[in-house]
Every structure is written in structure tokens, then in C-alpha cells.
Write a structure and sequence with these properties.
The protein is mainly β and about 450 residues long. It is about 5% helix and about 40% strand. Strands 1, 2, 8, 9, 10, 11, 12, 14, 15, 16 and 20 form an eleven-stranded mixed β-sheet that branches. Strands 22, 23, 24, 26, 29 and 30 form a six-stranded mixed β-sheet that branches. Strands 7, 13, 17, 18 and 19 form a five-stranded antiparallel β-sheet that branches. Strand 29 and strand 30 form a beta hairpin.
Length: about 450
């Protein structure tokens, strides 16, 4: 990973490397409950949800090795070597003709912007510069199917996102693995691979969207976007006011998208708040230095999982908090058939919820799994499940509190290589019995 293979077009002796794995083509008894309570919990599950969406994923043969992910009628986004995640993002629900790209204009990065630097050895040096987690030197399409897509970008952190080999921080590589669902939720494992212990000067991560909807935008949509944390519009900002998430939101009349960045653990001060560069980008960030003890990144690999969600239903701190709380405090499933799998790669705290992929992980019993998911205290927002050892090549039956669900309306499912993926297309707001059958 630390051997540097530049992306730069001006260094032609070692071209960028594209690696394409053969991607994974993803082809109970509810117990006794009072009837009124059963009806109420079913209603809590099904109320107000539209038909489920599925993903379409393609790999293009251009120099950027572009990976295009489309949730029909909801969004279209791309991954590229140069900009990484969110090289483009279109809100198909409100902009079906794709006239307004929500990604930043300049090519130095996509929607997720990292600015970090090591502490210089000489304290007299004040211009530390910044290194970005892009461009990537390698892009891999790991998985694609109707339920989710998985893309990995790897390389060295690059000074100001430049493309020449001299800009590389050779002692610090990155690996960004993004799992995309048709809901607009993108779960990411950001792995820092340090060849040595690195004293850190700063480490800021930023939502960097298009400047058109920011205060310096031009034309229609200028000033429609707002930045908030869970404290709301009037909450204090900066290092002394740590927050669990940052949100950019707009409710029209031109832009309707909302962008949420939330880390699985920790609370961080805001940075680059409600600002932008001319009309090129719009920013809301978090300074995550407190993750690192004594401001030092240890030698070896350090994984930082986070959720980056883009949709049109988070027009306040309160609504965004529902998604942040769900991610940061996953449920403990009560399993009656099958078992919870706590050893899945990406489940860093071994609790049965893979925070790097945004899904609960189970192992199937003889004919599937059955469990209770608890949504009464903390609503579970369109939860996803990965079931290993699946008995069959499809998921023919899904029931919610004994109600038979309709595929591609109430849920999306697929199976590949003995692993089933199921995404429920509704929020779970009560303690709910789910049964997934494989025969």
C-alpha cells in the first residue's frame, strides 16, 4: 500500500492502477401479542413509506475509471480516481434532468474533504500545509447489486490534493471503503495506514458541497443551504462546542438535498463552518483531533467509520439526530432463529452491527432468521441486514409482525455466495418481530 503509484498525467512511467475484483452480483413465529398492539406496530413500520428503490452500478472505461451508482428516482453519484467519493451527486427526486450537480466544482476532492498535517519538527515553521485523502492511486469495485454497492479507494495522502509524486506523504496511506445503499446512506471505513508514529498538527474533515446553494452562490438557489449541529441554529461553534454530527440542509425552492456527516464514536468541534470558496464550494466540517491521544497517530492501521447520508428528509437538527442516533447507538437484536455474528470484518466493537457497512450481521438457521429489532426508544431508520450461510439463492419471504411484506416495495433483497442482503424500506419505530425465510 505504501508503494506510491501516481495518478498524475504528467508522470507517465507508472500509470494509475485500476483493480476490479469480480464484483459480487447480488442476485418466525412472531409470538403472542395483543391484537391492537400488533396492528399499531405494523402501522408504525409501514406508515408513509414509498416503494423501495434498487441500485444500478456501472464501471466506465474512461481515464478516471469512473464508477457510477444510480438509485432510480432518488440520486446518481460517481466515484473517480481524482475526486474520490461524491465526484458528482445529482438529486434525481427534485432534479431529474441533472441540471444541478451538488458536488464541489473544483477537482481537488469530492463531497468528503480531509485536511490534515503532521506537526513540523521546527516550532518556528508555521506554514504546515494540508494533505488530502485524494487523489487515489487505485479504485476497486468490490460489490454491486440492487441492495448496495461497495467501492474502495486507496493511495497516499497528497499535499493540497495535488497529483505529482512529490506531493505524497509517503509515511501515511489511506484506504476509503464506501458502502452505498439506495436510501442515500453511504457508510465508510476510513483507514489511516501509518508507516511510523505521526505527530499531528491538525485533522479536519468537511462536507464540501457545491457553492451554488451557499452564501456566495450565483443565480437561483443562492443562500438556500443552512449548516447545523444537534444543538440547532443557535448552538455555539468551534472546539469548545463539540457535536456528534454536522448537517447541510435546504428545503427549496431550488435545492432540496440534505447532507449529514456523523462519526460512529466521539464528539468534535466544528470547523470551516458555513463558509465556502467563492461560488465553487460550501463547507461544514468537524475537527477530529480529539480522536488521537496526545495528538499522535500511532504506527499501523487506524480505522475511522462514519456515515455520510444525502436525502431530502433532514431539514432540522432534530430530524438529522434520528439518523445520527440510530447509527451511533445500534440495536442489540433479540434473535430467536439463527445467531448474531460479532466477527464480521468492519464490526470494530464486535457487537453484531457492522458500522463500516451500515448493517446488522447474522448467521442463518436451517431456513432463515427471526429476531426482534427494537425501535421504540431509538427508531431504526431503514435498517439493513447481512445474513451469512443463507439457505437458498433468494429471499422468498419477509414478514414484519406476521405481516407478509412485498418485495421491491417493503424491502429489497439479494443473495450471492451464501450471503443474503436485506434492506427494509421503512423506519422501525416500535419493537418489531422480523422473519426472513430462505425456503
Amino acid at each position: 500500500m505504501r508503494a506510491f503509484t501516481p495518478f498524475a498525467k504528467d508522470i507517465k512511467r507508472r500509470p494509475a492502477v485500476l483493480v476490479i475484483y469480480e464484483p459480487k452480483e447480488w442476485n418466525v413465529n412472531p409470538g403472542r401479542r395483543p391484537f391492537a398492539a400488533l396492528l399499531a406496530s405494523v402501522a408504525a413500520f409501514v406508515a408513509g413509506h414509498a416503494d423501495a428503490q434498487t441500485l444500478s452500478v456501472t464501471q466506465e472505461a474512461d481515464k478516471e475509471k469512473t464508477i457510477r451508482v444510480v438509485s432510480q428516482g432518488k440520486f446518481e453519484t460517481t466515484f473517480t480516481l481524482r475526486k474520490g467519493f461524491g465526484a458528482s451527486w445529482f438529486d434525481l427526486a427534485h432534479d431529474p434532468e441533472k441540471k444541478r450537480d451538488l458536488a464541489p466544482v473544483l477537482d481537488e476532492n469530492g463531497l468528503y474533504w480531509v485536511k490534515m498535517a503532521r506537526t513540523p519538527p521546527d516550532p518556528k515553521i508555521t506554514d504546515t500545509g494540508s494533505w488530502y485523502a485524494n487523489p487515489a492511486q487505485r479504485i476497486e469495485l468490490l460489490e454491486r447489486g440492487p441492495v448496495r454497492a461497495k467501492v474502495r479507494l486507496t493511495g497516499q495522502h497528497m499535499r493540497y490534493g495535488r497529483t505529482d509524486e512529490r506531493a505524497a506523504m509517503k509515511e501515511l496511506a489511506f484506504e476509503l471503503t464506501h458502502t452505498v445503499y439506495p436510501t442515500g446512506a453511504v457508510y465508510t471505513s476510513y483507514v489511516l495506514d501509518a508507516a511510523e508514529e505521526i505527530p499531528l498538527h491538525h485533522f479536519v474533515t468537511i462536507i464540501k458541497s457545491n457553492g451554488a446553494w451557499g452564501p456566495a452562490g450565483k443565480g437561483e438557489g443562492k443562500g438556500e443551504a443552512h449548516c447545523v449541529t444537534e444543538g440547532g441554529d443557535d448552538a455555539p461553534r468551534g472546539i469548545k462546542a463539540p457535536a456528534s454530527f454536522v448537517l447541510q440542509w435546504s428545503n427549496g425552492p431550488t435545492f432540496f438535498a440534505d447532507m449529514l456527516l456523523v462519526y460512529y464514536t466521539g464528539r468534535y468541534g466544528t470547523s470551516y463552518w458555513n463558509e465556502g470558496f467563492q461560488d465553487k464550494d460550501y463547507r461544514a466540517g468537524m475537527n477530529i483531533m480529539s480522536r488521537f491521544q496526545e495528538k499522535r497517530l500511532p504506527k499501523g492501521k487506524t480505522a475511522i467509520p462514519f456515515l455520510f447520508r444525502i436525502s431530502d428528509d433532514m431539514n432540522s437538527a432534530a430530524t438529522a439526530a434520528s439518523y445520527a442516533n440510530d447509527y451511533r447507538s445500534p440495536d442489540k437484536l433479540e434473535v430467536s432463529k439463527g445467531t448474531v455474528d460479532t466477527a464480521d470484518e468492519g464490526d470494530l466493537d464486535r457487537d453484531g452491527y457492522n458500522e463500516s457497512e451500515g448493517c446488522y450481521v447474522l448467521r442463518a438457521g436451517a431456513d432463515g432468521v427471526a429476531f426482534t429489532i427494537h425501535g421504540k426508544q431509538t427508531p431504526r431508520m431503514k435498517p439493513a441486514f447481512k445474513i451469512k450461510g443463507w439457505p437458498g439463492d433468494s429471499v422468498p419471504a419477509v414478514t414484519i409482525n406476521a405481516r407478509r411484506c412485498e418485495p421491491n416495495k417493503d424491502y429489497v433483497a439479494s443473495v450471492k455466495g451464501g450471503v443474503a442482503l436485506v434492506l427494509l424500506w421503512a423506519d422501525v419505530r416500535d419493537d418489531t418481530v422480523v422473519q426472513l425465510s430462505g425456503t
